[in-house]
Design a protein that fits this description.
Layout lengths: L1 H24 L17 E5 L20 E3 L3 E13 L1 E7 L19 E2 L2 E2 L2 E2 L1 E12 L2 E2 L1 E5 L6 E3 L13 E5 L9 E15 L15 E7 L1
C-alpha cells in the first residue's frame, strides 16, 4: 500500500511539472525592432556656364622659349543648395593628373597643379584652382581647410587648393570662426589660373586645353 501511494505521488508531481512546462512553452517571445535612418538635407550643386571655363585662343608666338606662359585667371561660381541647413565640404580630384608638366617657374606646386591635357606627347600645361569668395545664405564668411574633416584652420582666399595628391577639404565658416557653419545656400567663386608649357612652341596642329576636375561635395 505504501509503495502504491509513493508511485501515485511521483506520477502526480511529474504531471504537474509537465503541465507547468507546457504552460511556459505556450507563450513564446516576440522581438520588436526599431530601424530607420536619419539623413542630412539633400544638397544640389550647380556650376555657372555648365562648369566650363573657356580661355579662348592663344598663339604659340606668345610662348617663351623655356618655362611657361601664364594666362589671366577666369572664374565661375559653384552654388550648393540644400533642403535644410547643412554643413558642406568641397574637395577636388584632377582627372588629368598625368598631363601636369614640371617647370620651375610655374605658379603652382606639385600638390596644387591640375593638368591641362596633352597634345600628342606634349603636356600642355597646368592650372591652379582657388576660392576667391565664399558665402553662406548670402553672408560672406571665412574659408576653412582640413585634411581630415576634423581639425580646421583658416585658408586665405585666392590660395591654390590641393589636387588629389594631397587630400584637402574646404568649407564655409562665420567670419573669425574655425568651426564649419551650416547653411541652406552656399556660393563658392572658383578661379582657374593656367600656365602653358613652352614645349607647345613646336606644335604643327591646334592644341586644345582639356582640363577636367571633379568637384566633390560632402556632408559634415
Amino acid at each position: 500500500m505504501e509503495s502504491n501511494i509513493k508511485s501515485v505521488l511521483k506520477m502526480t508531481s511529474l504531471a504537474c511539472l509537465l503541465a507547468a512546462t507546457t504552460s511556459a512553452m505556450a507563450v513564446p517571445q516576440a522581438t520588436l525592432r526599431i530601424t530607420g535612418t536619419i539623413t542630412p538635407g539633400a544638397c544640389s550643386p550647380v556650376l555657372t556656364n555648365s562648369g566650363i571655363i573657356d580661355f579662348g585662343e592663344t598663339s604659340v608666338d606668345q610662348l617663351p622659349a623655356t618655362g611657361t606662359f601664364a594666362l589671366a585667371g577666369k572664374s565661375i561660381t559653384a552654388t550648393v543648395t540644400c533642403t535644410t541647413a547643412t554643413k558642406v565640404a568641397m574637395s577636388f580630384v584632377d582627372n588629368r593628373a598625368d598631363s601636369v608638366p614640371t617647370h620651375t617657374n610655374e605658379p603652382t606646386a606639385a600638390a596644387t597643379a591640375f593638368g591641362l591635357g596633352k597634345a600628342g606627347d606634349i603636356k600642355i600645361g597646368s592650372y591652379g584652382l582657388s576660392v576667391t569668395a565664399i558665402q553662406g545664405d548670402g553672408t560672406a564668411g571665412d574659408l576653412l581647410m582640413s585634411s581630415d574633416k576634423t581639425t580646421w584652420s583658416k585658408m586665405t582666399l585666392d590660395t591654390f587648393a590641393n589636387n588629389n595628391t594631397s587630400q584637402q577639404y574646404l568649407t564655409f565658416a562665420a567670419t573669425g570662426s574655425t568651426t564649419p557653419k551650416d547653411a541652406t545656400v552656399f556660393t563658392f567663386s572658383l578661379k582657374a589660373t593656367p600656365a602653358l608649357s613652352s614645349a607647345l612652341g613646336g606644335i604643327t596642329e591646334t592644341a586644345n586645353l582639356d582640363g577636367n576636375t571633379t568637384i566633390n561635395f560632402e556632408y559634415l
